[in-house]
Design brief:
The chain has about 80 residues and is mainly β. It contains one helix and five strands. The chain has a five-stranded mixed sheet with strand order 2-1-5-4-3. The chain is globular and about 35 Å long. The protein starts with 19 loop residues before the first strand and ends with a strand.
């Protein structure tokens, strides 16, 4: 699996001791996000992630957030400019 934010040469390299969440849906579907050090509330709130292929093209962001009943995944909420 590709890891969000890693460069082309290390796109699928997981770092030992790091925690990852799977991105589900939207333009980043199937990628992993390094969530090492994130607290429970931060995982629920999620993140706006830079995305070249979202609705707003280069420079746009995709919104991913967690669900209280499911750990290890962040779900697409939509895109924003």
């Amino acid at each position: 699996m590709r890891i969000y934010g890693n460069g082309p040469g290390d796109a699928s390299i997981r770092r030992p001791g790091h925690a990852y969440a799977e991105l589900v849906g939207g333009p980043l579907d199937g990628q992993l996000l390094d969530v090492t050090g994130w607290g429970a509330q931060q995982l629920l709130d999620g993140a706006l992630l830079m995305c070249e292929s979202g609705m707003y093209g280069p420079g746009g962001r995709s919104d991913y957030a967690g669900r209280a009943d499911e750990a290890g995944r962040l779900y697409w909420q939509g895109d924003s400019p």
